[in-house]
Amino acid sequence: MGCAASSYSTSDQNDHAVYYVTVNSKTLGVKIAESLLTDKLAACVNIIPGVESMYWWEGKVETDQELLLMIKSSRALLNQITKRVKEQHEYDTPEVIAVPIVGGSTQYLNWIKENTRRPR
User: Can you supply a Gene Ontology BP term from the record (predicted)?
Assistant: First the structure.
């Protein structure tokens, strides 16, 4: 017994992406998430607590407790999402990383498409 062919799909020419953004507080994470959702720049934002980040900054290794925003959206909205995060973020160099969604549930991928706006 196999899966129905229409249950799973490769993302239409990599139209969808997951964006990763780290923040230093839940308040900031909620602010960014609400802004992206309100303007339909994202269909969903997961706020994941308990991320310990180690990174180079100004010549030395730093360690911070952060939260991770996992943003599901359109790949074509990269510039608008990056701009919005930079406008609202407290960091000098906020992380905005886009990873293409290469496949998944057709129903879920369609839901992302239906709940994000077309790029300007």
Answer: response to metal ion
Other CB atoms within a 10 A radius of the CB of residue 22 amount to 20
Q: Which residues of 61-80 are buried (b: 16+ CB within 10 A; e: fewer)?
A: eeeeebbbbebbbbbbbeeb
User: Torsion-angle region of residue 14: left (phi > 0), alpha (psi -120 to 50) or beta?
Assistant: left
Strand partners, 74: 16
| More confidently predicted of 118 and 58 | 58
* 45 DSSP β-pair partners: 71
SS3 (DSSP) at 114 = helix
Single out the residue of 57, 83, 68, 56 nearest to residue 18, CA to CA: 68
Average pLDDT over the chain, rounded to an integer: 91
The pLDDT of residue 96 is above 90: yes
Residue 78 has pLDDT above 70, yes or no: yes
Type of residue found at 75: R
**Using an 8 Å Cβ cutoff, are 88 and 32 in contact?**
yes
Q: Which fold has domain 11-114?
A: Alpha-Beta Plaits (3.30.70)
